Amino acid sequence: MSTAKEEVESLLKRLPEDCSLEDIQYHLYVIDKIHQGLEAADTRGSVSQEEVEQRLGKWLTE
User: Which residue has the higher pLDDT, 9 or 57?
Assistant: First the structure.
């Protein structure tokens, strides 16, 4: 796993030269939320696709 600094460096290399500070902040926010979600899945578990479909089935229509 890479360090936070390495992730930021990688992000900055991928973004266009004319990106704004707001663009950078948004991408950092998304990366942080992804890390939080993966950590939560590791510690608390996750839900299978079938279970999600069953739970949401009453709201979904085909």
Answer: 9
Q: Which is higher by pLDDT, 28 or 2?
A: 28
**Cα angle, residue 36 at apex, residues 31 and 42 outer, rounded to 5°:** 125
SS (H, E, C) the chain: CCCHHHHHHHHHHHCCCCCCHHHHHHHHHHHHHHHHHHHHHHHHCCCCHHHHHHHHCCCCCC
Instruction: Supply the pLDDT for residue 60.
Output: 74
| Buried b or exposed e, range 33-50, using 16+ CB within 10 angstroms | eeeeeeeeeeeeeeeeee
